[in-house]
Amino acid sequence: MPTTRRYRKRSRGLPCPLRWEDCTIEQWREHRDEMLASSPAGMRPVGWWKHEAPAPRDTRVTEALQLHRLGVLARAELDALLPFWRHWEAKARGGLAYVRGPGDILEGERAYRAWRKWAGIPADLIPTRKSLARIFPAPRD
């Protein structure tokens, strides 16, 4: 019978604990540049949130959205995230249903808002269709 093997993540020879939540400020400072360089756009290592973040991590929003709101995203990170956000905004505007769980399917405006929240789309960079309708009202016949 097949079994699932669990492998321990390698620490790449770093003296910091296997769990970065437990690293000290000295360990963070020593490995900070390497850890930040290996983080994908819109994400920060746990040590950054623990030792440098201007505010605690809010798990109710995506990490990229919180970093944008804090104003700490680099221009290169924004350039990398904008295509992702635009893609999911287009999907949401296309009327894609949003499934929250078995038998819990959102459609219409509720699905649109749920997709934007899931993707962490910042309203100041990619306005919602409701705000666009206020700015550019539909012509009346």
Poorly predicted runs: none
Multimeric status of the protein: single chain
Major β-sheet annotation: 2 strands, antiparallel
- Number of helical segments with 4 or more residues: 6
Structural class: mainly alpha
Order of helices and strands: HHHHEEHH
Taking all residues together, what is the mean pLDDT?
83
Structure in words:
Helix 4 (75-93) runs antiparallel to helix 5 (108-119). This protein has a domain at 75-126. The protein is mainly α and 141 residues long. It has a two-stranded antiparallel ribbon with strand order 1-2. The chain is built from 6 helices and 2 strands; from the N terminus they run H-H-H-H-E-E-H-H. A hairpin with a 2-residue loop joins strand 1 (98-101) and strand 2. It starts with 24 loop residues before the first helix and ends in a 6-residue tail after the last helix. 46% of the residues lie in helices and 5% in strands.
Summarize this, please?
By secondary structure, this protein is mainly alpha-helical. The protein contains six helices and two strands; from the N terminus they run ααααββαα.
Layout of strands and helices, then pairs:
Layout: H1 25-37, H2 46-51, H3 63-70, H4 75-93, E1 98-101, E2 104-106, H5 108-119, H6 129-135
Antiparallel strand pairs: 1-2
Helix pairs in contact: 4-5
Question: Which terms would index this structure?
Answer:
141 residues; mainly alpha; 6 helices; two-stranded antiparallel ribbon; single chain
